[in-house]
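Quick one, tokens below:
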């Protein structure tokens, strides 16, 4: 809203200072600061309101040290994160931009599913919350919408070096030995990148690091490229569902999911900025994504919201995000990575979420296998997800969280480094 207001004022009256809103760096900084202010200042009031509504966490006794002390701690604190993301984005981002619209839709959609789950748990006193199949349906639905937008929306295009043209002319030069040769003089101009519809994405550690989903259907014939959505959309649904559930599983101890998400958000901010800047994209030899600069404004609000929530969620937590926050955080991360064509980097960047997911899958699969084979189920970990395994080893909760954050930072750095290490 403020972006559109000051853009209009700048065009009509050349209002001093209004031109600042044309700079992504300024709007991203304002988005970050606004989200921090909203989360920290209004977060306390939201927590007090949740306490008045007796919106307390129902804790199951799993035999973990200090676990029952969390009984009654306000949950549904994800409302703080959602407000800290949505309000700054609406204020400072271009609301006519398709990427802004898509990310706001994902945030509200998954936030609503998580809110409904928490509402059933807290107010209906049903510890199971929303049935798992309805959560999956909601995640599949948002994945379907994101996939359809990315494949068919006319504003979602990429520009790569294979399609660029230079403005300039060929001139003759004379070497020191007297020989003449021709060189191309770009006359200081930038390359012109031709926009095209494409399902390209970035593959880590490969020199020619672009992969096109349409390649997977080339065997169907010369006109098969248009059918690439048959593989692309299910892939998007899988990524959104997996990352969303991974964030949900990681939200098991104070500050873990929030801090990890903030670190991932910072990594995504770097990737979004370089993908939206034609000069840097040219230097790094990655696809340039027009209009994606607005995603930098959104992810700044995301990071600010996570950090602001951490103010109250750090050990010992004054509030839990609940599914209202965790489902939304994972879905936002997945959709954002898909929007900037970096979804294949998620196994590295979201390594914490991945290992938490895998620990549960491995634990359940091994237990069922050994029970069938030996008549008694055996476990790989003392408890899953993985952070509970370390709690069973009597490692302090705050130390587990800090160590997971350190690993998350290393993974974020590795993810960014893949842009050059090929």
């Amino acid at each position: 809203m403020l972006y559109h207001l000051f853009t209009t004022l700048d065009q009509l009256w050349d209002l001093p200072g209004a031109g600042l809103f044309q700079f992504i760096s300024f709007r991203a900084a304002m988005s970050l600061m606004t989200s921090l202010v909203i989360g920290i200042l209004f977060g306390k009031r939201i927590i007090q309101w949740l306490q008045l509504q007796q919106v307390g966490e129902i804790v199951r006794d799993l035999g973990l040290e200090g676990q029952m002390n969390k009984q009654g701690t306000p949950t549904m604190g994800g409302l703080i994160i959602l407000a800290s993301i949505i309000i700054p984005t609406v204020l400072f981002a271009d609301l006519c931009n398709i990427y802004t619209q898509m990310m706001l839709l994902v945030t509200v959609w998954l936030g609503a599913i998580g809110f409904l789950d928490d509402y059933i748990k807290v107010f209906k006193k049903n510890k199971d919350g929303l049935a798992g199949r309805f959560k999956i349906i909601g995640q599949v639905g948002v994945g379907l919408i994101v996939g359809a937008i990315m494949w068919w929306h006319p504003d979602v295009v990429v520009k790569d070096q294979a399609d660029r043209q230079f403005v300039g002319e060929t001139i003759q030069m004379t070497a020191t030995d007297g020989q003449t040769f021709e060189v191309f003089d770009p006359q200081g101009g930038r390359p012109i990148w031709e926009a095209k519809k494409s399902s390209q994405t970035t593959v880590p550690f490969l020199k020619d690091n672009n992969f096109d989903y349409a390649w997977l259907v080339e065997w169907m014939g010369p006109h098969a490229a248009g059918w690439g959505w048959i593989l692309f959309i299910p892939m998007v649904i899988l990524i959104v569902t997996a990352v969303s559930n991974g964030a949900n599983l990681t939200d098991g101890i104070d500050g873990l999911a929030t801090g990890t998400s903030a670190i991932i958000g910072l990594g995504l901010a770097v990737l979004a900025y370089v993908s939206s800047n034609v000069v840097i994209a040219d230097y790094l030899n990655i696809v340039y994504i027009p209009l994606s600069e607005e995603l930098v404004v959104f992810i700044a609000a995301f990071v600010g919201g996570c950090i602001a929530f951490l103010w109250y969620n750090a050990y010992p937590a004054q509030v839990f995000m609940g599914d209202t926050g965790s489902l939304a955080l994972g879905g936002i991360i997945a959709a954002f990575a898909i929007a900037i064509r970096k979804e294949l980097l998620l196994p590295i960047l979201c390594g914490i979420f991945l290992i938490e997911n895998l620990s549960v899958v491995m634990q359940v699969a091994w237990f069922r296998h050994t029970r069938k084979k030996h008549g008694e189920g055996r476990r790989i970990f003392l408890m899953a997800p993985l952070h509970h395994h370390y709690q069973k080893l009597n490692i302090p909760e705050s130390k587990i969280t800090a160590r997971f954050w350190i690993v998350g930072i290393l993974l974020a750095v590795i993810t960014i480094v893949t842009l050059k290490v090929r």
